[in-house]
Amino acid sequence: MSGRDPIAARFAALAPWTARFVVDGVAYGADAGYVDDTRVATFFEWFGAPATILELGLFEGAHTLQLSAPATTERVLALEGRADDVRRAELVVELHGRENVELAVEDLETVDLARHGRFDAVFCSDVLYRLATPWRLLAAMARASDRLFLDTHYWPWPAAETVEGHAGGWVGAPEEERDGGRRSFWLTRPSLHEALTNAGWAVRHLRDHPHWPFAPRLWLGCVRPGPVPRDATEIR
Q1: By CB count within 10 A, which of 49, 100, 217, 220 is most buried?
Q2: Residue 13 above 80 pLDDT?
Q3: This prediction's pTM
Q4: How far apart are CA 58 and CA 88, in angstroms?
Q5: What is the DSSP letter of 177?
Q6: What is the C-alpha separation between 171 and 160, in angstroms, rounded?
Q7: What is the maximum span of the chain, computed from C-alpha positions, in angstroms?
Q8: Predicted confidence (pLDDT) per residue in 72-109, tens digit
């Protein structure tokens, strides 16, 4: 098909893909469909219609397309640590004609988000649990916005280690081949809330996904300033 379809050829040149995209009624990429992903819908449910959005982690542009789709979205700056994912997202954004999207490669372990300016909200999905020092990104995001949608796994077992005062455990990333076998530090649920507090975030919304693949997962809607409630049961 790629020999007859120029779009298929461009997708093939950037293989392998994780996500599936439909262009003019034809499906390209892989099998994972992120159309109407409930994470993005929840983001807009919690935070309304932010005009400027900082996205961390791209899903090859799948979430980027949804975040940039509303007429109220003036700008999406999407940052990703994997250069190959950014190249895939560039193709997807181009094919969908999204002129309100900017893409860039950044090391999310050490990025200074403040230099990119201020945003109405941050959308951070599938990133935090891939980092060796996730608390640093929580602090960096607090310098970029006062609203945060955070989607992440956490360490659901008794803490195995403590790093820089944060409890949790070391794991290999779920997609080890794509992540180069890099280890990441998963925070326990209490330590995650403590790290949010230390960064100045207050949790206003929480959705628990205890049966998510690999490990339990949380979706958190956070705002600044204010303390996080100590007891997770206080968070609705």
Answers
A1: 220
A2: yes
A3: 0.91
A4: 10
A5: T
A6: 11
A7: 59
A8: 999 999 999 999 999 999 999 999 999 999 999 999 99
Q: Please report which residue ranges of the chain form alpha helices under DSSP H.
A: 6-13, 38-47, 62-68, 83-95, 134-142, 189-198
134 Cβ contact list (under 8 Å, min separation 6): 128, 152, 184, 185, 187, 195
Helices vs. strands in the chain: H and E counts, helices first = 6, 13
**What's residue 1's pLDDT?**
45
Count of other CB atoms within 10 angstroms of residue 234: 10
Give the chain's radius of gyration (CA, Å): 18
Say how many C-beta atoms besides its own lie within 10 A of residue 188's C-beta. Answer: 20
Which two three-digit tokens encode residue 38? 């409930």
| Residues 84, 37: Cα–Cα separation, whole Å | 22
* DSSP-derived pairing of the beta strands 147-153 and 121-125: parallel
Is pLDDT at 233 greater than 60 in this prediction?
no
Three-class secondary structure of residue 131 per DSSP: coil
Q: Confidence band (pLDDT; 50, 70, 90) for 31?
A: confident
Q: What is the pLDDT of residues 154-184, one digit of tens each?
A: 999 999 999 999 999 999 755 544 455 678 9
Q: Which residue stretches of 51-182 are H helix?
A: 62-68, 83-95, 134-142
Question: In one letter, which amino acid is 221?
Answer: G
The Cα 137–Cα 134 span in angstroms is: 5
pLDDT at 232 over 70: no
Domain range summary for the chain, segments of one domain joined by + = 35-234
What does the pLDDT average to over 194-221? 95
Whether domain 35-234 has CATH 3.60.10.10: the reply is: no
Q: What is the pLDDT of residue 34?
A: 80
